[in-house]
Amino acid sequence: MAEGIWLRFLSGPEIASLGLTRTEIVDAVEEAVRDHGEGQTSFEPRVHLVPDNGGIGHFNVLRGHLNRLGEHGVSGVKVVGDFVPNYQVGLPSELAVATLFDPTTGVPLAILDATMITAARTGAMTTVGARHLARRDSKILGHAGSRGTAWWNVTMLDDLFELDEIRVTSRRPESREKFAEELSAELSTPVRVVATAEEAFDGADVIVEATRLTEPEVLLRTAAVKPGAFVVPYGTVSAVELDLLDVIDKVVVDDWREAQSGRFGSLRRHVDTGRLSPSSLHAELGQIVAGQKPGRETDAERTLLWHRGLSLLDVAIAHLILRRAEESEVGTMLRFH
């Protein structure tokens, strides 16, 4: 390599060409979650940049460091836009850029299209939660929402369980029909399109609420959560009833400090009103993965995971991609300094 400081740029198509499997991504995320539980990480809660754009979207800025990746660990920053109306112009609602840095010198190592990373790490976190909190014999998955994260949620959960049925819905009929077609082309499990979240969730073993509301609206009703169910509500705007936690036996978050920060999140009202507090919280998921606290203990328990999106997961997957790209000599080397 010529003199100077060089970094690797990885585009979305280049990342796709590396052929990372869903299992590899889930395993990388679980390792990062374990590191978080064991105190082998540093990160700050996300911050939001809200432009004066009429409320059509905002940016999230996430920052994190993993001690056990690379020779000296690796640090990263991701900026992701969250623009719900993007479907009207043929764009994903979430577009992201991630950067990785050497934590001993500050030298930038890579710039990556993190759009896939954002979606995949969310599905992987849902799945890591299911590994520890859902019934192993879960047969019915009810999923509301068809944005980018939805594909990863459903396919990764299908990898984990021997499902009998996947129910999917979203607000726009054309969106949910297209989503079901894509899933059916990938999976052998029957996929059923339903018109409402109520139909998707009723009596399901695994309930995932990943909608794109702009104003709070109850889509996941407390009565839909049967004994033994595992619930994952992570929409940006709340879609759950305020009394939902009254029937949940174990409430788990990705990080309690993160859960208390920012303006958004499906359980924001529950935190603000004291319904979710240190006394009612069972654990952070990292504590369970690290063996410090129990996950699911009985078949009848109702369990819930609220994950807001840890920067550590972005760093873990970005690092996995970078190492694979270096091995395969994929990407464009850019002169930085």
From TrEMBL:
Matches recorded under Gene3D superfamilies: NAD(P)-binding Rossmann-like Domain (3.40.50.720), ornithine cyclodeaminase, domain 1 (3.30.1780.10)
**Top-level taxon of the source organism:** Bacteria
Q: Name one Pfam family in it.
A: OCD_Mu_crystall
InterPro entries from the UniProt entry: NAD(P)-bd_dom_sf, ODC_Mu_crystall, ODC_N
The identity of this protein, by name, is Ornithine cyclodeaminase family protein
> To which species is this protein native?
Kribbella lupini
The organism's taxonomy opens as: Bacteria, Bacillati, Actinomycetota, Actinomycetes, Propionibacteriales
